[in-house]
Amino acid sequence: MQHQNLTFDELHRLNITSHEILLWSSSIDLAERYQYYVDQSIRSIELNEQFFNCTPPRFGSRCQYSFELVSNVADMALNLQWQSDLTNAVTHRTCYILLDCDRGPTPMCLDWREICNGRVDCFNNGVDESQCFELEINECNENEYRCYNGICIPKMLFDDSFQAVECL
């Protein structure tokens, strides 16, 4: 595909602004050089560069690059929305709110299965793994099975052939 290329002098005669250059997906450097050219009272030949007005999906100083995966802005917006929905699905699940758990810069709630699982998930002194001995010393009823994390589940729900999936 042929791309339109113009000199800075031609752009200036067409009353093109540096803002318009930016709107055409040009680099900030190129827009600044063009503005510098426009601001000069005597326009020198050395500053009269070529400007390539690229046609999407091409971009770059000479239209040498392209993103072939995303065909248009609508597709890109749809992909961003899908990623946002996926993030919300992960971060807005059932949260265990009885512990004040600092998960770091990524806000994610503490799931009940992450408490007393042998792995520190909270950066504030590992509160999710503190006082787990209380779970370990609890006693289950005769009709209950005690999971590795101390939780008691009905024996009729326990199937050890799947390594206590019910205890997750």
Whole-number count of domains? 3
Could you give the count of β-strands? 6
Helices and strands, in order, run as EHHHEEEHHEE
Indicate the proportion of strand residues.
Answer: 5-15%
Strand order, sheet with most strands: 1-2
What's the number of helices? 5
| Spatial shape | rod-shaped
Could you give the distance between the termini? 57 Å
Low-confidence stretches: none
Radius of gyration: 31 Å
Determine the structural class based on helices, strands and strand pairing.
alpha+beta
Major beta sheet, specifics? Answer: 2 strands, antiparallel
> Fraction of residues in helices?
25-40%
Mean pLDDT: 76
List keywords for this structure.
two-stranded antiparallel ribbon; alpha+beta; 3 domains; 168 residues; rod-shaped
Structure, explained:
The protein has helices spanning about 10-15, 20-25, 30-40, 75-90, 135; strands at about 5, 50-55, 60, 65, 145, 150-155. The chain starts with a strand and ends in a 14-residue tail after the last strand. The protein has a two-stranded antiparallel ribbon. It has a two-stranded antiparallel ribbon with strand order 3-4. The model has no long low-confidence stretch (mean pLDDT about 75). It has about 170 residues and is of the alpha+beta class. It has five helices and six strands, in the order βαααβββααββ. Helices cover about 30% and strands about 10% of the residues. It folds into three domains: about 5-65, no CATH class; about 70-125, no CATH class; about 130-165, no CATH class.
